[in-house]
Predict the 3D structure of the following.
Amino acid sequence: MFQPGHPARLNSTRSSSIKPTPLLITGPAGYGKTPFCKWNALRDLEALEKQSSKVLPVYIQLHKLSNVPLISFQKAFLASEELATIWQELNQSESGSRWTLRVYLDRLDEVPSQARQIEIANIAASGVSSKTQIVMTARDHVSGPWLSWLRRLEIQPFGEDQVRQLADKWLDGDASKVSTFYEKLRLVPSLASLMKVPLLGTLILAVYKHGHEGLPENRTRLYEMFVRLLAGGWDAAKDVNRGSKFGSQTKLAVLSHLAGSLHTAKKRDGSASEVKLALQQRVPGLQNELGQVLSELIVDGLLVPSGSTLSFPHLSFQEFLAAKDLVELKSDRANNRLDSFLKGDDWWREVLAFYVSFHDKPGQIEQWIASGVARALPKTLDEIVRSRVVDLCRVLLTSFPSFRFSPDMRQLLGWYSESAFRQARRKHRKRSVRHLGDSPVRSAGCPTICGFQRAGTTNPCSDSDFSDVRSSEDRRVLPRCDAGRSGARWARWHPPMRRG
């Protein structure tokens, strides 16, 4: 299905007697899951137009199904009259059609409710047949037994050669420019891992090529610089005057409030009326300038229109700006978001990661996290709380490498030294694979914004690592609970909590 050394492509030709494999493509934010879907869907259409394939692609953004009734596979995913007709023909028992329907269900993680995620997955499973293939994408923390009918493939980060190729393309193939970039990159060691994430690598190179502020020192600073470039910094860098009426500070104030409102409502799509409300709240004097403000935000690329709705170009931009909005709100709002996350709500995962990195007093953030643990533990399973606190403390250590956690925090989580925690983190990176079948499986790769391929092989884990969480059908790794991707492995990393 995936060819080494080539962009990840789904087969367009397949024997009608072979049941297409349903796939779940996973990876952290910015790894190219949506480009994977869109690129393959376009490729399927091109092959269909050339009559070299009988695969009919359907692409669906799953966040649009967050609040609509889901009655059946056909009603949920094939609502148009033409697709409904094709669906009926494919499912007629006497039909000898050689057509295959390939349904791309993109970004399951953008459906805020896990109950709705499960509902969508179950309805999708009901439509799988020898003539229908499901290709679903989600961030890597989305897991559960309700996804066990899908083959799970993890997108791997860029290798060193692919990072070099990305830099070479962005810097016009100029060897001296590439060399200068790498010299500056070596001065900021924390960016080495970020360069392996396609979206972040692209943002770093964009900031480097067009900005005048040098390289960012971390992921949060990278988003800050890039958003400001979009909000007017490109023009300043290029000495271009497009007649923009509003400054970047005004635009970001409005966008932060909009992002916070959308995330609180657990939505990806907004409307012009919500932008107007953000204007009224943050820049009251401009509420009558809605049309001009909207026009500039769209031209800047900060908001993307789709019919009557508006959304941020990537969920991570909404999460970054929602975190900025959270900083400006009363502390009880941040406490509520922390409580929701520690109790199992992944919708706030990345927002809180940004929120933690915004602060310059790690001791206060440690106390804030500890207060959330104290509130959550009486009501939530220890394993769920601990695994999520690990993620927040990992962000804290990334921002402040020399910071030492208090003895109370280490005892609470079973960490007896920071070195043990860092060693566990290294083990997590090495073991963050999925074992599919009896042999290593090549991970899904995909073209990114820049059109590059990405592919890497995963390594099988030993049976002892996952002895009680392996599917008997294909030995796919399944999680024990909603603790996320690391839940099944927690006991191997940390000693259990000491009880009184």
User: Anything to note?
Assistant: Residues 471 and 477 are 7 Å apart (CA to CA).
